[in-house]
């Protein structure tokens, strides 16, 4: 969705500042009617501008303090089946198709090093996966953010 107007941007900025704000609170803060805010939120959600609540849950709070990034090399003809199999591994929290040397970049969480070894093994056991190179995240240096993109251009 690229047709955001100033009202949409103000609404998204208000959500960044207070993600738990109600429609009524957003309307009051922005000087808009509740119906306008609700309609805008519905439109933004329907167009994919608002992501799921799951992105806000810290995996460490669920007992998964380790985050790693796995570059996965696959047989391209089996990509769809590989992605389906990877989606069955709960610790694979995100995956992206890549250009370049690897085919998939997966974000994987684990309870500890032994658990990460198990998860990597599960990925390598998928038919069509040739190789996986794993890097452990030492620290999150820039957290996921959208505010800079909402500012003036």
Short description:
It is built from 6 helices and 4 strands; from the N terminus they run H-H-H-E-H-E-E-H-E-H. The chain has helices at about 5-15, 25-30, 35-45, 80-85, 115-125, 145-150; strands spanning about 65-75, 90-95, 105-110, 130-135. Strand 2 (about 90-95) and strand 3 (about 105-110) form a beta hairpin.
Task: Describe the fold and architecture.
The chain has 153 residues and is an alpha+beta fold. 38% of the residues lie in helices and 20% in strands. It is built from six helices and four strands. The chain has helices at residues 6-17, 23-30, 34-46, 79-87, 113-124, 147-150; strands at 66-74, 92-97, 104-110, 129-136. Strands 2-3-1-4 form a four-stranded antiparallel sheet. α2 packs across α3. The longest helix has 13 residues, at 34-46. 15% of the residues are buried.
Task: Write the topology of this structure.
Blueprint: H1 6-17, H2 23-30, H3 34-46, E1 66-74, H4 79-87, E2 92-97, E3 104-110, H5 113-124, E4 129-136, H6 147-150
Helix pairs in contact: 2-3
């Amino acid at each position: 969705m690229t047709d955001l107007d100033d009202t949409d941007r103000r609404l998204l900025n208000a959500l960044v500042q207070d993600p738990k704000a109600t429609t009524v609170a957003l309307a009051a803060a922005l000087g808009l009617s509740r119906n306008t805010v609700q309609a805008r939120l519905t439109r933004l959600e329907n167009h994919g501008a608002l992501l799921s609540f799951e992105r806000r849950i810290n995996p460490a709070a669920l007992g998964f303090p380790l985050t790693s990034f796995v570059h996965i090399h696959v047989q391209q003809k089996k990509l769809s089946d590989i992605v389906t199999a990877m989606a069955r591994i709960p610790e694979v929290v995100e995956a992206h198709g890549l250009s370049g040397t690897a085919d998939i970049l997966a974000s994987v969480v684990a309870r500890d090093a032994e658990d990460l070894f198990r998860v990597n093994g599960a990925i390598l056991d998928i038919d069509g996966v040739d190789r996986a190179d794993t890097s452990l995240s030492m620290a999150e240096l820039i957290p996921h953010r959208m505010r800079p993109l909402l500012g003036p251009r």
